[in-house]
């Protein structure tokens, strides 16, 4: 990130206690200590570790559930950019998903308009397009085809992002994240993997590029996978990692007919 120009000065990271959130928090905490941003606010429903060794006047940590209007208002106040990672990250019941993944983004975007936030980087998912067949290659213009209730909530988030980008000044950058983990644990990940370092590169692009509404894939350097990520590259994203450098000792070798993998193959649970 050493060469990143003109970062927004006040950045909110939601879901900052999560796997991706902790990595993003460390990345942006470095920008804070180097004086490249002035304020970093970390929010999560769970306790958040300090990404720095000691307190810093520009660093705030808030333990909040982002499923109410009041919480969204508190979290976004005085922020320039929001990286919205908070949410349930896999298939679940509507009871849980409605609060975290539907009410969360809905109230967040209203609050961003109210507080004049410039842009929202939204953690969408490959499960928003998971019912595209595995033998197809799609780009940012592909139709939403969710493969699960979870995927439908991410499609909803993208639609909210598009609505507010069309009718308000809030820019939106929807990141359809593939498999963003420390290790490659399945053969499918050879087509869907994104390293945490490449995710931070995707974030840097989203924080600094000039756009109004964009869809990009959260993908490492995989030129022959399910997703043509030329839209992200056009905006400046240059991934540097390859899934073969992150292989776990044993791999799930299954092939799946749909891009969403086993999630797409699973029947809808009756749970509702
Ligand atoms: N890791 C991946 O491969 C991947 C793939 C696609 C999409 N995503 C999306 O990226 C985001 C981060 O994923 P992750 O792997 O770090 O998941 P994670 O579960 O580790 O992190 C999510 C964080 O959100 C917090 N959270 C949940 N509900 C909340 C609420 N109501 N208010 C505030 N915070 C709340 C959780 O406490 C958790 O710390 C999620 O939105 C997920 O859906 C991740």
Architecture overview:
- The protein has 272 residues and is an alpha/beta fold.
- Helix content is 33%, strand content 19%.
- The chain contains 8 helices and 11 strands.
- The chain has helices spanning 19-33, 69-76, 94-114, 149-167, 189-192, 196-208, 230-235, 262-265; strands at residues 10-14, 39-44, 59-63, 81-84, 119-125, 171-177, 179-180, 184-186, 193-194, 213-218, 247-252.
- The longest helix is centred in the middle third of the chain and has 21 residues, at 94-114.
- It is globular and about 50 Å long.
- The chain starts with 9 loop residues before the first strand and ends in a 7-residue tail after the last helix.
- Residues 15, 17-21, 44-46, 65-67, 85-87, 89, 99-100, 104, 123, 125, 177, 179-181 line the site of nicotinamide-adenine-dinucleotide (NAD).
Give unreliable regions as ranges.
Answer: none
Question: Roughly how many Å is the radius of gyration?
Answer: 18 Å
According to CATH, the homologous superfamily is: NAD(P)-binding Rossmann-like Domain
Domain module count: 1
Small-molecule components bound: nicotinamide-adenine-dinucleotide
Element string (H = helix, E = strand): EHEEHEHEHEEEHEHEHEH
Biggest β-sheet description: 7 strands, parallel
Oligomer: single chain
Short account of what is shown:
The chain has 272 residues and is of the alpha/beta class. The chain has 8 helices and 11 strands.
Topology at a glance:
Elements: E1 10-14, H1 19-33, E2 39-44, E3 59-63, H2 69-76, E4 81-84, H3 94-114, E5 119-125, H4 149-167, E6 171-177, E7 179-180, E8 184-186, H5 189-192, E9 193-194, H6 196-208, E10 213-218, H7 230-235, E11 247-252, H8 262-265
Parallel strand pairs: 1-2, 1-4, 2-3, 4-5, 5-6, 6-10, 7-9, 8-11
Helix pairs in contact: 1-6, 2-3, 3-4
This protein binds nicotinamide-adenine-dinucleotide.
């Amino acid at each position: 990130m050493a060469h990143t120009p003109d970062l927004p000065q006040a950045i909110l990271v939601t879901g900052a206690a999560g796997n991706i959130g902790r990595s993003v928090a460390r990345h942006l905490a470095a920008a804070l200590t180097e004086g490249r941003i002035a304020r970093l606010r970390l929010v999560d429903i769970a306790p958040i570790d300090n990404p720095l060794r000691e307190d810093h006047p520009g660093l705030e940590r808030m333990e909040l559930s982002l499923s109410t209007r009041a919480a969204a208002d508190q979290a976004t106040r005085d922020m320039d950019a929001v990286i919205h990672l908070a949410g349930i990250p896999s298939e679940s019941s509507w009871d849980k998903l409605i609060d975290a993944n539907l009410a969360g983004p809905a109230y967040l975007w209203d609050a961003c308009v109210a507080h004049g936030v410039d842009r929202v980087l939204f953690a969408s998912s490959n499960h928003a397009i998971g019912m595209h067949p595995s033998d197809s290659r799609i780009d940012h213009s592909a139709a939403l085809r969710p493969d699960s209730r979870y995927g439908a909530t991410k499609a909803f988030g993208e639609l909210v992002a598009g609505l507010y980008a069309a009718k308000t000044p809030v820019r939106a950058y929807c990141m359809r994240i593939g498999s963003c983990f420390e290790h490659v644990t399945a053969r499918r990940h050879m087509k869907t993997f994104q390293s945490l370092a490449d995710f931070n590169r995707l974030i840097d692009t989203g924080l600094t590029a000039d756009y109004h509404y964009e869809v990009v894939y959260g993908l490492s350097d995989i030129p022959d996978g399910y997703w043509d990520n030329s839209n992200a590259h056009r905006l400046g994203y240059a991934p540097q990692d390859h899934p073969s450098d992150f292989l776990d000792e044993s791999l799930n070798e299954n092939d799946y007919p749909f891009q969403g993998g086993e999630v797409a193959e699973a029947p809808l649970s009756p749970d509702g």
